[in-house]
User: Fold this.
Amino acid sequence: MWVTPEDVLLAGALWITERANPYFILQKRKGHGDGGGGLAGLLVGTLDVVLDSSARMAPYRILYQTPDSLVYWIIAHGTSRKEITEHWEWLEHNLLQTLSIFENENDITTFVKGKVQGIIAEYNKNHDVKEDDDTDKFKEASAKFRKLFGMPEEEKLVNYYSCSYWKGKVPRQGWLYLSINHLCFYSYLLGKEVKMVVRWADITQLEKSATLLLPDVIKVSTRTNEHLFSVFLNINETFKLAEQLANIAMRQLLDNKGFEQDRSLPKLKKKSPKKVSALKRDLDARAKSERYRALFRLPKDEKLDGHTDCTLWTPFNKMHILGQMFVSTNYICFTSKEESLCSLIIPLREVTIVEKADSSSVLPSPLSISTKNRMTFLFANLKDRDFLVQRLSDFLQQTTSKTYLEKELTSSLNSSDDEVGSERKFNLNDSSVPTATQALMTMYRRNSPEEFNPKLAKEFLKEQAWKNHFTEYGQGVCMYRTEKTKELVLKGIPESMRGELWLLFSGAINEMTTHPGYYEDLVEKSMGKYNLATEEIERDLHRSLPEHPAFQNEMGIAALRRVLTAYAFRNPNIGYCQAMNIVTSVLLLYAKEEEAFWLLVALCERMLPDYYNTRVVGALVDQGVFEELAREYIPQLYDCMQDLGVISTISLSWFLTLFLSVMPFESAVVVVDCFFYDGIKVIFQLALSVLHANIHQLLGCKDDGEAMTVLGRYLDSVTNKDSTLPPIPHLHSLLTDNGEPHPEVDIFKLVRSSYEKFGSIRADVIEQMRFKQRLRVIQTIEDTTKRNVVRTIVTETDFSIDELEELYVLFKAEHLTSCYWGGSSNPTERHDPSLPYLEQYRIDVEQFKGLFNLLFPWANGAHSEPLAVRFFRLLDQNADALINFREFITGLGVLCHGDLTEKLKLLYKMHVLPGESGERSHSLSISAVKKLNTPDYRHYLKLWNQEMRPKRENTKDLPKLNQSQFIELCKTLYSMFSEDVAEQELYHATATVTSLLLEMGEVGKLFSSSFRKDHNQEGNSEPSVCMRDVLDPKGTQEVQELGDIFVPAGLENKPSPCEEGKGDEDSEQLPPMQDIKLEDSSPKDTGTSSAMLISDDETKDDTSMSSYSVLSAGSHEMDEKLQCEDIADDTVLVGLPHSTSIDKDWAITFEQFLASVLTEQALVRYFEKPVDVAARITNAKNAKKVGRPLLSTSDYEISLSG
Assistant:
């Protein structure tokens, strides 16, 4: 490739000049290519790997030099001789003549530089290369990475780092390449080459550790190996990036969310390091945005634009607080340097004025922001105030236009009809359905008024304290959040303010405000829809806080049904999970229906990520984090709890329901208050406090049942003395035994004690621990899936458990590879974690072709594809263009362990299936497979389906094979044997069998036609096609040109079953078809065109073959002319598009096919040949180990070998 000219000193060092002229020199790197260059070459190769030189990337280069100058300029480099030669020839043809005209050397240099830069600019313009894309150096590294590891263009390199890889006890210095889907290492030292490729999805542990010998090590563990890397220049950056990429891979395993590059990144700044790729910047920006969203509880699509140090004037204590301002598309946020001193969120939708105030020595570069609720925020000490104001004004313009657009959209949505065609407009106050227009608790309390008591007085004081706080610190989203806010939350939020403050602290208020009418629309769309989620919701509705009066009538139940169903409709990946009903019922008590919905969205999608999917992965991850925290904070109890296995038992219900299912209701809502304010750390702190408070009793427990009883009693005794609610019986306490009750524990004291003892747990530490646990949990789930699949199938097949596990790994790897590098179908269709184990991973026809070539004994290179397609269609029982692992193993099992009859039956059935023939099968796509889902196809599949069951199938039930299908079967047999050692012998055997079958078909046809003559005297006048027409000697010459035609000897003198011109009783008028117009044709036309059998007397004298000849010229004319279309249940059209009639008589049965094959020992040996399954699996694993093989190696030379 051409490169921007750079000057080079010592042009001869480490390079060999291969071509030269007065202005240009073509050089090759020492140690590259066949020569090797002896010891000097080995040393140069080693240096190239160890040092990050651009020469390491390109073994060829072209230098420019004027005759009288010692300075050289590199203008092009190449990874192969072919590439560099093209550039050299271009220079010789286009520049040499021109350069001789110039007199001044400086003019020549300027001209050459300008010309090369012009070529680069033209290339970038034609190939749509953006200016701020990767640097030349990084592009070279990417090219080297793809070449070394055989990766396709789709595999994007993110970054590469110099490090040492410990192979045994010896460190190998080299380069660690981190790409989107793989971690790769390459080293070349003194002729010894080391290559390693690990898929991120296979990593079970990734950790940074330190030992005495190795101060900084990154340990990468998979199920089978452990890899150690050390001596990094910046280990923290490398580890963070590796962690992020592994996280993306886990996310893909969990819910198919693959990596999509963000194209809307800001341009690269001049100060940025040269080596940083666009992908690396993208991932860095993502990581920052995730931290920003988590810190301020912002919607999940919010992207951080930038942040800057500044001060904020806080009017409540008359101080300038030092901190950081964060700006994103829709928000301005601030947090103080001193944690929890003050934080602030200003949505741009609330902003009215942004203005620069006058600078002074006391207040340099101030910026004033005013909001709709008449609050003004004063920021100062802003470094780049003008740029910041410009960004804010841009975002404000976008916000205003977005608001107008939303208004228009909601109005148009309200005016348009519903998807189903119903014109009923949804109304929350619809009199026909009792609906919750306000929090259920308010309605419930109004129905049962209480007398004044001290608790109500305390509640009133709490409300006053919050009102005073709002006066001083502001109310709504733009409120100053300080230590005082936290204090008030820990004392308990008043009943009347809970809904409002939960919305505020969780960030749900933002999503609700920016999506007006969204919930109503969802309810309307989801009402009346039935699926698995709605069934589960109906089942659990009456189990949700049944002890609370609000859910003992239809109003509460209906509100709960609507919220849960609307959420299941919004997020089908989660749908509905047990425990969501308990949490949602509590939300409905304190918030309006729409507010409860958005609180549920915040919980499921942001605050408790992955908690409520089908496998409760998030809760299992946090269970692992809790175990780690218990080991760190209460080590004396940890070992005992591990032995009893209590931690895993208790924590799941605590986390999933935020203690609502294990504590009395009025106490548990205080926990929910703190959770919405401080996040998941509250739940960890509280769980540790509960264990700590019962440490002595737990140490004395003998089994898990006793430990559970101790904890159950303790949690039942947690009370809220401030609660104004009438006492609600707690189900958990009703179910415990009648032992002595535990002394009462005050919830507020318990919460405060949890903050005092375990308040040091930080959110970022929890996230770090979550990553480690997520790897473990997801890989454990994947292993469980594999074991369950194997356990289900092992009784149905002759493969061993080990072989099935290896095959499952290959099957899953094929699925993952297509996710990485594109497949012809959607990955989400093929991988659905909510499905039963066997159905979770499925592959389409393109992926099956890859596995077919690697594993199936009948595959043989060029001819495999049509056979693979036929095989796939046979295995795809439900015709959804996807096959699962069981179907895959069924097919492979017959080929590897089946007897002769089973294999031949499979081969026969592949060709009886109606479908396409010849060349067209090569280009069978997913859509083509889906189109086969016709009544005819289903009819055949029902027949095969019975054979898949354990009961023995009667071979007589198999449909007959007609002419066209027979030809395809013979072509398949020929292609199967094309690379076999006994190829000639097999060809002869096939020829004999073919001859035999053709004669059987002819005889069968005679019987068939005479039978029909007896039963059907009334003939029709339509023209016919029959074997005699086909065998017309006049047409023989033309027919022979068709190729792939089978010629039985001696048939030309047999009596003709039909005569030309006679009405054909065996013909059938074709029904009209959608796109093909069929016309009548005379017998003489069809005699030459739809022929399959011709006479050939010469073959009688040929002793090397049997009594027939096979013309297999490789011509595809027959493929083009023969067509198979579905007509009726047992009819397949054979002939030209213009033929109107079908010869239904010629057919053979499976018994005839089987009997014929058994006559030839060569064929019997071939089909009974044992298959070495282990060797095939090993070969397939080796083929899969290093990416996809390069499509062509002719353009590349292996630069390093050892």
